[in-house]
Amino acid sequence: MTDLTALTIADARDKLRAKEISATELTEAFIGAVEGGDALNAYCVKTPEIAREQAKAADARLAAGDAPSLCGIPLGIKDLFCTKGVNSQAGSNILKDFKPPYESTVTSNLWADGAVMLGKLSMDEFAMGSSNETACYGNVVSPWRSKNSNAELTPGGSSGGSSAALAANLAMATTGTDTGGSIRQPAAFTGTVGLKPTWGRVSRWGIIAFASSLDQAGPFTRTVRDSAIMLGSMASVDDKDSTSADIPVPDYEAALTGDIRGKRIGIPKEYVVDGMTEETKRLWDEGADKMRALGAEVVEISLPHTKYALPAYYILAPAEASSNLARYDGVRYGHRAELSQGDGITEMYEKTRAEGFGAEVKRRIMMGTYVLSAGYYDAYYIRAQKLRTLIKRDFDEAFEKVDAILTPTTPTPAFALGAKSDPLDMYMQDIFTVTVNMAGLPGISIPAGMSGDGLPMGLQLIGKAFEEGDLLNTAFALEQSIGFSETPEKWWG
Ligand code: GLN
Predict the structure, then answer these.
(1) Which among 104, 182, 203, 236 is annotated as catalytic?
(2) Helix 23-35 crosses helix 9-17 at what angle (to 10 degrees)?
(3) Radius of gyration of the chain (CA)
(4) Which of 131, 212, 289, 355 has the greatest CB tally within 10 Å of its CB?
């Protein structure tokens, strides 16, 4: 018998439409898997009742012959997306028990296309992190184990619940958000496909904000085809988000021809960095060879301002976060500290924020407030904005010569939980991904090989703004050529 929880969306869609399986049967298989997956701690909220109801509705649509691609497909949703009446707290105690009275645009789009919600997925607090160790729900454990050790590994972050749940077959696809790498890095660590669309392609309405000029939602899937299917539903032109681009959403799946003959692929020389393992370098070279074998031309390019991307990001992202997170004051949402006799409103704000936010979030708020303060604004914030323009210009110039850019997704495979205690060491995780957010471009990570320790490694492709169809097709061609098929050995449940 086929394991229903291991199917791709494309395969499940065909089986559902052919009435070989029902949405209810599929959903029950996943509800069972989610129950058995507690050791991974990927779900922070489980919603089996909602799932069963949505599956029933999906079966009715399937019976009526009105079934969009996601009809009856069970998904997990990152805790950053507001889901009506269901806890949405961004992995933070300050939003404890917050139940939004509205649904995010992305999840509304998914439910309108018939998808089924299995629950909410853990994440680093307010999406700040690269290891899922700052969540108020505790660490998420990767389903992967290294060959040489039994240490618990990170599934990456901040969307670590999303990557772990998908890799462990606790959802058929999941949603994530990516401000500096939080979809692509966890995808690389778990052998899954993670897509960050162009900024403005997917509405941010109803997604709890971290750094608004960088945040973008996207899917985690098993295959590039599934990524195209998910993006087709998640993307929309939205009146509720004035920065959502007024560009019609094309049929991304139709773009997957696998033909990339004559395409030009850039290899940025500045991405050869210290700390990159030999294995990573080899994986990258092999990826370039595969591109050539597929008929593409591989050329060296230069992105000269790359080295400034991470420092500039750690000025701009905290600056925006300090402003976005000012709203958590104990008045409007979630947690409010207990007050002592004589405490006034100032004490209420101070105590609430001191108790509600974790250490990393406090660090970002302090950095952000500092770089925006009078006297330092020009020295830090304005200079970082100027660097952002230069980084964007590097890409504009590169894309005059090439159609896509190939890089590793991360310098190394997944590390052990607890292994990185120095914040700077953690920030280095995003060295290859953060430039893409700074320039607002689409990027995708696909599983590309295994390390000597038996852990998955990813390659990143970066595309032109709003040309996700072309980017997905390039990734599709490379995916077919690589033929990655590893899955983690089951030790949980
Ligand atoms: N790791 C980066 C940070 O902590 C990126 C996070 C993200 O993309 N949400 O800011």
Answers:
(1) 182
(2) 140
(3) 21
(4) 131
Average pLDDT over residues 288-305: 98
Report the C-alpha gap between 122 and 349 in whole angstroms.
Answer: 26
104 included as an active-site residue: no
Specify burial of residue 454 (Cβ count, 10 A radius: 0-12, 13-18, 19+): middle
Residue recorded with tokens 């454990």: 141
Q: Are strands 193-196 and 297-301 parallel, antiparallel or unpaired?
A: unpaired
Give the pLDDT confidence of 316-326 residue by residue, as tens digits.
Answer: 999 999 999 99
CA-434 nearest atom, ligand 1: 5
Name the amino acid, one letter, at 33.
A
Residue 329 has pLDDT above 80, yes or no: yes
Query: 1-493 maps to which CATH number?
Result: 3.90.1300.10
The pLDDT value recorded for residue 275 is 83
Q: Is 83 helix (H, G, I), strand (E, B) or coil?
A: strand
Question: In whole angstroms, what is the distance from residue 79 CA to residue 92 CA?
Answer: 10
* Spatial separation of the C-alpha atoms in residues 435 and 460, rounded to whole Å: 12
Q: How far is the CA of 294 from the centre of ligand 1 (A)?
A: 33
| Cβ-based neighbours of 30, under 8 Å, separated by 6 or more | 4, 5, 51, 74, 118, 170, 171, 172
Give 365 Cα–ligand 1 centroid separation in angstroms.
14
pTM over 0.90: yes
Stretch 82-108: mean pLDDT: 97
